């Protein structure tokens, strides 16, 4: 969970639809 939070911060610093999609999928699989 902490790693995903760090990735979210990185995505916020460097906005990008592709990165956002990857982070969303990553969190989705982790939550499951």
TrEMBL record:
Q: Highest taxon of the source?
A: Bacteria
Q: Which GO terms describe its molecular function?
A: methyltransferase activity
Q: Name one GO biological process term.
A: methylation
Question: Is this entry keyworded Transferase?
Answer: yes
Cite the entry's keywords alphabetically.
Methyltransferase, Transferase
Name by which UniProt lists this protein: Ribosomal RNA large subunit methyltransferase A
Which organism is this entry from? Answer: Pseudomonas syringae pv. aceris
């Amino acid at each position: 969970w902490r790693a995903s939070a760090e990735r979210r911060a990185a995505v916020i610093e460097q906005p990008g639809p592709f990165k956002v999609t990857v982070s969303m999928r990553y969190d989705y699989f982790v939550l499951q």
